[in-house]
Every structure is written in structure tokens, then in C-alpha cells.
Amino acid sequence: MLTLFGCGALLLRGAGCTINDLLDRDIDIKVERTKSRPVASGVLTPFQGLCFLGFQLLLGLGILLQLNNYSRILGASSLLLVFSYPLMKRFTFWPQAYLGLTFNWGALLGWAAIKGSLEPSAVLPLYLSGVCWTLVYDTIYAHQDKEDDLKVGVKSTALRFGNFTKKWISGFGVACISSLALSGYNADIGLPYYAFLAAASGQLAWQILTVDLSSRADCNRKFVSNKWFGALIFSGILLGRLVP
């Protein structure tokens, strides 16, 4: 099941990126960081991009059909979020929040696939923690493009928060860790989970406190460092289940 969901997560994120590249190709060509993307740069045609998207969705369907009926319906319902996310930056300063709702749908789906239903006391705080985490790392990521975003007229939390970004993402960081703690408590996870959660808290605090939001290179470094935050939480969940 872990392998199945790992592949599913890659396909969901890949499909989201493909849709984003297709819909944003006219914007991407005007932004320094994104102008070399395959569709924007002309390496792939929009039709080729659509064919690749169809291939990704077909593989995703194959994975979804391995799950129970409840999970199939829940998984299929995420497609509305996946397809609409790329449009959000045109209408709201909170596309990062919408991304959080989209990319963390797997928290709901994973629980449903194992349990056959959702247990709100455990799974909703887990989902909320993922949304808040996304708001932290993707706001940092968005600071790379803030000058270009202003020029082309798209929106982001980086532009919305401005000079108050660190205060905002600190709040989301606290909400993320608190929600993870609540989810672990309600799911009756063992003590090792909380040790790893404490380490992950330190990693997240380090990101927020030290990131230079005026440096594209440092924003990218901090964004990439979230792999360690995710690895710590995953390890904590795993050991918390193995060791009471």
C-alpha cells in the first residue's frame, strides 16, 4: 500500500504540474524561473502536453482502481482541485492555500484506503497540518517570483504578506505542528512520534528564521530543505506505530 500511494502521489503531483504548465504557458514565458519549462519554451507542443497528461491520468486511474469504493470516490473528487488549482493565481492572493488543499488530499485518501472510512478526529488535523505546511514552504518558494508576478499580474501569498511574510508563515508553522501533535494524539501514536515531531519543529523554525526572502537562491534552498521536514514526520509516524 505504501508503494501504491508513493506512485499515486508522484502521478498526482505530476498531473498537477502538467496542467499548470499547459494553462500557464503564456505566463511562464515571461517569468525568469519558468520560461524554460517544456511547453512554455516550445520543447513540447500543447497537444503533446495533453497526451502526456492523459498518460499520467490513465496510470493514476489504474492505481485508484486498486482501492476500495469509498477511496475511489474520494480520489476521483480530488480531480476538481487538481484541474482548477492553476487558475487560482489569476483570481486570489491565496493560491498557496488552494495548493495545500489539493496536494494534501492524499492524507484523506490514505486513511480511507486503510480504514474504509474517515475518522475526523485524526485525519482532519492531519490534513490541516499539510495545508499549513504547504502555506509555509510554497510562500517561501513564491518569493522567488514576486517581481515577475507583479509584472505579469498574477497573485500569491508572497505578494499578499509582503514584509510581514515571516510573521504569517510562523503562524502557519505553529498551526502545522499543533495539528500534527493533535492528529498523533487522536490516532494513539507512540512516543517516538513526538520526538521526531520536535526535531521537525526545529527544522521548520530554522527555515522560517533564517530564510532570506530577498534571495531567490536562499528561498529555493529553504524550499528544497522541506524534504527533511517530511522525512522526519514520516519516520516519526513509522516508529510511533512500531514502538508503543
What is the number of independent domains?
2
Number of strands: 0
Poorly predicted tracts of residues: none
Query: Mean of the pLDDT scores?
Result: 90
Instruction: Label the structural class.
Output: mainly alpha
State the end-to-end distance: 22 Å
- Residue fraction in strands: under 5%
Shape: globular
- Number of helices, counting only DSSP H or I runs of 4 residues or more: 15
Tell me about the largest β-sheet. Answer: none
State the oligomer: single chain
Order of helices and strands: HHHHHHHHHHHHHHH
**Rg computed from alpha carbons, rounded to a whole number of angstroms:** 18 Å
Question: Would you kindly provide a written description of the structure presented here, covering whatever features stand out?
Answer:
It contains 15 helices and no strands. The protein is mostly helical and 244 residues long. The chain folds into 2 domains: 1-66; 88-242. The mean pLDDT is 90. One of its GO terms (molecular function) is 4-hydroxybenzoate geranyltransferase activity. Pfam families: UbiA (PF01040).
Features:
mainly alpha; 15 helices; globular
Write the layout of secondary structure elements.
Layout: H1 2-23, H2 25-28, H3 38-41, H4 46-64, H5 69-77, H6 79-84, H7 95-103, H8 105-115, H9 120-142, H10 146-152, H11 157-161, H12 165-186, H13 192-210, H14 216-224, H15 226-242
Helix pairs in contact: 1-4, 5-8, 7-9, 8-9, 9-12, 9-14, 12-13, 13-15
